[in-house]
Every structure is written in structure tokens, then in C-alpha cells.
Amino acid sequence: MLTYGLFCLFSTKAAKPGTPVVVSWNVVWPFSYNKTVSKICRVLAYFVAKTGTHHVTVSNFAKNVLHEKLNISKDKISVIPNGIDEEFLEAKLKPNRGRIIYIGRLEPQKRLDLTIEAFKLFKKKVDDAELHIIGSGSLYMQLKETSKRISGVHVHGQVSSSKRQELVNQLEKSWVFVSASEFESYGLAIAESLSVGLPVILTNAPYNAAVNDLVCNGYNGIIVEHNKPEAIAEALEKLYRDQKLWDELSKNAKRSAHFSWDEVAQKVEKIYEKLEKA
Fold first, then answer.
1. Fewest beta carbons less than 10 Å away: which of 17, 133, 141, 192?
2. Cα-trace Rg, the chain
3. Contacts of 137 (CB under 8 A, 6+ apart)
4. pTM to 2 decimals?
5. pLDDT at 7
6. What's 249's domain CATH number?
């Protein structure tokens, strides 16, 4: 995030006078676990915000943060979600009932402790349940050790961009995507999971853009109270017992996330064309 902020700052300053500057915000920073980095990012973001002619971000949540924290006018902010790779859009779901998946960074703010505690509760009811955690980060080794102690927990390394089909394969055989993350500016892995047809269970953490922006409670997933693993476990059990509900959520999930990179490019191009004519 810090490197990205420095790049944006120098890029905007290098622009010729009178040249429109479009700033793309993929991450916003309501809080950070590293207070020093957070302060530096806020300072950089302030200067970048003042220099940008127009701003593009990935969610309505991020748009509101930019408006409230940096005082950027809402009419100067466009929301263009990240695109979804074609492999995900063409995937065919063949779920193994009870197979739960999480894909993303393995960092404290992702609250995988809540997900694992919820899984332990769920596994007491469904003995053959599995939890597959895919990603990399500071908690990787700790989670690998945890997986040795808890039956059914499997921790995989990050899947490289050149092997995206492996990620698709993992999603195709999964049953539910679960995230208890405290912070998401968008939630690309959540969008990709929805595009495959996976219902998503989220917690209602206040800084999680995927709540409402991507997942609608009772339509393509279930949103439960944050910091309560028992609430996640209850949602899992509800879906396991009610196949009709799972089928409905899965159908709607597939409908709700279908934004291709071609569509992203077209929307960005329209912004540049509009600025060029202004």
C-alpha cells in the first residue's frame, strides 16, 4: 500500500500542467494494524487526492471513505469493480457438501481465528466437513501448525497467477466460501467465488465492503454478526440442513457477479474520453 501511494504521488506530480489526472484507489485505509504505516499512507493519500482530477475506486464503501476522509466530491469518484477472469465465469460448480473454502491473505485482519472456531463447532455436527484455507501471509506457518491439530483443516499456499485454473478447480469442488475479515475495500476472492456459484457467509464487520456491495443477506449469501464464531457455525448448519436454500443462494450468486475485465476497460475508457472533452 505504501509503495502504491508513493507511485501515485510521484505520477500525479509528474503530469504536465493542465493534463487530467485519474487516480485509481484499489485500497482505502480506514484503519491499519501498523499505525506508523497508516499515518504515512494518510499523508500520501491526502496529497494524491488533491492532485487527482477524477478518482476511480472499486466499491461504494471505498467511495464513501474517500469522500468522508479525504473530502473528495462524490461526483468526482466513479465506482468500477474489479473484473473477474474468464476462467471463473466459465467454471462449473460440482460441490462437495460440507467443503468450506477461504481464499485471501493470511493476515490478522482476516480473522481466520473466527473462521476456524466456527468450523470446529460445525464439524461437531457434520463429521466429514472440511475447511480449505488458500493464500499466503504472516500467519501461514501458524495456520499450518493449527491444521495439524484440528482434523479437517487444510492450509494451502498461494496459487500463482500462472496457475489460476487450480484456484478455479478448488472453488468448483467447494460448497461455501466463508470470510470473517474485518476490512475489505472490495473482496475480489469473494466476487470470484460468487461468479462460480458459491454462496458466501460473511460477518458484518463495519469496514468490510463486501457486506452489501457484493453479498446481499438471504439472496446470494448469509451475513452474520461479527466476532461470533457460533453465528458463522449456525449459518453453515442452516445451509447444510436446507438444500433448497443453498440451491437458491447458489443460483443468485452466479447471477450477481459477472463483471468481466473487458467491461472494466470500457468503463475506464469512457472516463478518459469524458475528461478529454472537458
1. 17
2. 20
3. 105, 106, 107, 110
4. 0.88
5. 44
6. 3.40.50.2000
Q: Which of 84, 88, 145 is nearest to 112 (CA)?
A: 145
d(CA 25, CA 46): 12
What's the number of domains the chain is made of?
2
Q: Are 28 and 77 in contact (CB under 8 A)?
A: no
Q: Minimal CA–CA distance to 195: which of 83, 27, 100, 78?
A: 83
Which candidate, 143, 139, 142, places its Cα nearest to that of 131? Answer: 143
How far is 114 from 119, CA to CA, in rounded Å? 9
In what helix (H) or strand (E) does residue 56 lie, and over which residues does it extend? Answer: strand 54-57
Instruction: List, for residues 173-189, the tens digit of each pLDDT value.
Output: 999 999 999 988 899 99
What's the grid cell of residue 273?
A: 474520453
pLDDT digits (tens, 9 = 90+) for 87-105: 999 999 999 999 999 999 9
Residues 182, 109: Cα–Cα separation, whole Å: 5
The boundaries of the domain holding residue 50 are: 2-83+260-277
Q: Largest alpha-carbon pair distance within the chain?
A: 65
- The reply to whether 54 and 77 lie within a common domain is yes
Grid-cell match 477524477, residue found: 54
